[in-house]
Amino acid sequence: MSILKSLKTLTLSLLVGTSLASGSAIAEEPQSQVKPKVLIFDVNETLLDLTSMRTSIGKALGGREDLLPLWFSTMLHHSLVDTVSGSYHDFGQIGVASLRMVAKNNNIAITNEQAKTAIVTPLLTLPPHKDVKEGLAKLKAQGYKLVSLTNSSNKGVKAQFESAGLMSFFDERYSIEDIKIYKPDLRAYEWVLTKLNVKANEAMMVAAHGWDVAGAKEAGLQTTFIARPGKTLYPLAKKPDHVVKDLHELAALLK
Fold it and tell me: What domain of life does the UniProt record list for this protein's source (predicted)?
């Protein structure tokens, strides 16, 4: 991968970190495309609701529940710092380090163990969004192959899916842990396409993050942005093929 492409990826990550802030998503009209053979789902915030972590994060940060989005965007930011600089730490380690950074920047004292306690167990037991199980069931019934692609570890996403009751919906679970290159680096999407043995335009990335659909689109995949509350698109990126409010709408769209 060229230095230019790496810099482009980092710039994308830094600029779209604010996608965790409130905003509305507007996309161009969907273009006529081949029907995807496989749907690739992001996990955290796309399928699983991060809202429940406000309590644990807020407690660790002295009651500052409002800092949850800042913590998550800081974690995403530094995952890309690892990738572009040729380093690697798992998502849990970056999450703990990022929480300590947010605490320090807000003059809040927090130990490494307190940060772990605030993140690890709550993150592994996130509930699915209300539309997820029924929406996935519809897509499965329509004959789509469903897989996940996450920045979380293999062990972590397995625990998340077991806790949320999502295991039966997915044919495969993929983690960037296997290649140690975080999304939205284009190599992450190219890797999963190789694993799936499909062409880029035969796969659709489904995510509630502007940075994720932007990266997937640059890699040639079809993309759908799920406009979860408080999520917005990166205005300077290529538009996704579809914008939906939930998985029910996606299932109807792909019928």
Answer: Bacteria
What radius of gyration do the chain's Cα atoms show? 17
pLDDT digits (tens, 9 = 90+) for 171-229: 999 999 999 999 999 999 999 999 999 999 999 999 999 999 999 999 999 999 999 99
Cα(211)–Cα(184) distance, rounded to whole angstroms?
A: 7
Q: Give the separation between CA 82 and CA 152, rounded to whole angstroms.
A: 14
CA-wise closest residue to 152 among 65, 93, 97: 93
Report helix, strand or coil for 128.
strand
The predicted model scores a pTM of: 0.86
C-alpha torsion sign, points 226, 171, 196, 154: positive
Chain centre distance of CA 4: 24
Instruction: Estimate the share of the chain in helix, then strand, then coil, as percent rounded to the nearest 5.
Output: 55, 10, 35
User: Which H helix or E strand runs over 103?
Assistant: helix 91-105
**Rounded to whole angstroms, how far apart are CA atoms 145 and 139?**
8
Residue pair 242/252 in contact by the 8 Å Cβ criterion: no
d(CA 214, CA 27): 12
Residue type, 82: D
C-alpha 104: how far from its chain's center?
A: 26
